[in-house]
Design brief:
This protein is an alpha/beta fold. It is about 35% helix and about 15% strand. It is built from six helices and nine strands; from the N terminus they run H-E-E-H-E-E-E-H-E-E-H-E-E-H-H. The strands form four sheets. A three-stranded mixed β-sheet has the order 7-4-9. A two-stranded parallel ribbon has the order 1-6. Strands 2-5 form a two-stranded parallel ribbon. Helix 2 packs across helix 6. The longest helix has 20 residues. The protein is globular. The chain starts with about 20 loop residues before the first helix and ends in a 23-residue tail after the last helix.
């Protein structure tokens, strides 16, 4: 995950020293370190990939803690407002999964000990994403309300440079956000209603109001 880069100046490059700022990024970086030790101690062949903001059909949109695009779609279909954290001017590059299978497959037998950023080049604000979901919802006969809530502890701007993947894996990305969201929305319409997962919190102090 690009969450390992933290609040550094994007676009993030593979040579940047990881500075994760949240438990998610810290946990993923710890796994990267564990893999490297397994290589040193046992000769494990490995490559590390840092995808980011991956979207597409078959995604679990019923988990309230997952990708924001899927969460927005689920909430619209449930008649709930899309929750925008803070001012919504955070930037992210939403990446259509269909462009990443070939480079991922190459890493099964090709390369060793490499690190790759893989994802879309173009960044959007969360407000722009919400507007896109709103347009798609209207086109499909649904209302789509937006609601700003308490900001999160997160990097304001986070997106990556993919030069290395383009040069070494012949990676090419053609994500069209509006088309991807439209495809996801139509797919979600065909899915059965699934129960949304809720978690019990051991520590409630300092958690976001909308998580309670």
């Amino acid at each position: 995950t690009m969450a390992t880069y933290g609040r550094q100046q994007p676009p993030f490059t593979e040579d940047m020293r990881p500075e994760p700022i949240d438990p998610y990024g810290i946990a993923k970086y710890s796994i990267e370190q564990d893999i490297k030790v397994a290589h040193q101690q046992h000769g494990l062949r490995y490559n590390i990939v840092r995808p980011h903001n991956v979207v597409g059909i078959y995604q679990n949109i019923w988990d309230k803690y997952r990708n924001v695009a899927g969460i927005f779609i689920r909430r619209v279909l449930a008649g709930e407002p899309m929750l925008i954290y803070g001012d919504g001017e955070q930037t992210r590059a939403f990446s259509d999964i269909k462009y990443y299978m070939k480079p991922f497959e190459q890493l099964i037998d090709g390369h060793d000990g490499e690190l790759f950023n893989i994802g879309a080049d173009k960044a959007y604000t969360i407000n722009e994403l919400a507007n896109t979901v709103q347009r798609v919802a209207w086109k499909n006969g649904f209302e789509a309300e937006k609601k700003h809530v308490e900001g999160r502890h997160e990097a304001k701007n986070a997106f990556c440079d993919h030069t290395k993947a383009k040069e070494m894996l012949n990676f090419s990305d053609d994500t069209n956000l509006e088309e991807t969201i439209d495809t996801m929305f139509k797919w979600a319409l065909e899915q059965p209603v699934r129960e949304q997962k809720y978690m019990q919190y051991e520590v409630e102090k300092g958690i976001y109001d909308y998580w309670k």
